């Protein structure tokens, strides 16, 4: 399954931008900017930090550190992305991918987004297997780690703002083997 997903992403991400533009494909709605992630952090800090323990706050600060300290952290070459490659959009049978569904949020964006959803649900060990067949993953793994970590924080913020706890429970059992930024990807 890792090989099949890697080949799918490699092919999807290799579609030329001029083809994407010629077909009037819009940007992925989840594309963020440095400023939008700084704003997200400020909202989390203002609304969620008062309800969190200090070690959780420290973890969140570490998640966002690259956005504040590395001016090029969010730089990427846009590609066509699926945008929501969660397990419920991957049809598999006998441990083989037989289809990918729901391209509703697809568009051009950061290829690290696709890997982040898989990372968040299957873990870094699975991504390492994929990287044997799609070697570009290593070049954007830190952004994938960032997006994967930020995902649950977005859900928590939405839940807090809407006073609807179900948002906090939507992705309760995602993978937890996400390495720290800068960790050598080939040492897993």
From TrEMBL:
Residue span of the signal peptide, if any? Answer: none
**Superkingdom of origin organism:** Bacteria
Organism expressing this protein natively? Paenibacillus sophorae
Pfam families (UniProt xref) = APH
**Which terms in the Gene Ontology molecular function aspect does this entry carry?**
transferase activity
Alphabetized, the UniProt keywords read:
Transferase
Cited InterPro entries: Aminoglycoside_PTrfase, Kinase-like_dom_sf
The answer to whether UniProt assigns keyword Cell inner membrane to this entry is no
**Which stretches make up the Aminoglycoside phosphotransferase domain?**
2-125
Name listed for the protein in its UniProt record: Aminoglycoside 2''-phosphotransferase
Does the record bear Plastid in its keywords? Answer: no
């Amino acid at each position: 399954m890792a090989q099949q997903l890697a080949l799918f992403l490699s092919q999807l991400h290799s579609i030329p931008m001029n083809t994407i533009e010629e077909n009037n494909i819009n940007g992925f709605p989840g594309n963020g900017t440095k400023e939008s992630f700084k704003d997200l952090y400020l909202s989390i800090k203002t609304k969620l930090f008062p309800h969190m323990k200090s070690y959780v706050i420290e973890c969140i600060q570490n998640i966002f550190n690259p956005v504040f300290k590395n001016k090029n952290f969010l730089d990427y070459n846009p590609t066509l992305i699926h945008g929501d490659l969660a397990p419920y959009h991957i049809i598999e049978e006998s441990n083989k991918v037989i289809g990918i569904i729901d391209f509703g949020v697809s568009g051009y964006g950061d290829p690290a987004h696709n890997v982040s959803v898989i990372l968040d649900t299957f873990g870094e060990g699975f991504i390492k297997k994929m990287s044997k067949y799609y070697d570009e993953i290593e070049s954007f793994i830190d952004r994938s780690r960032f997006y994967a970590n930020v995902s649950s924080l977005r859900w928590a913020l939405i839940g807090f703002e809407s006073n609807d706890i179900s948002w906090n429970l939507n992705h309760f059992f995602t993978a937890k083997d996400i390495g720290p930024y800068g960790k050598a990807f080939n040492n897993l």
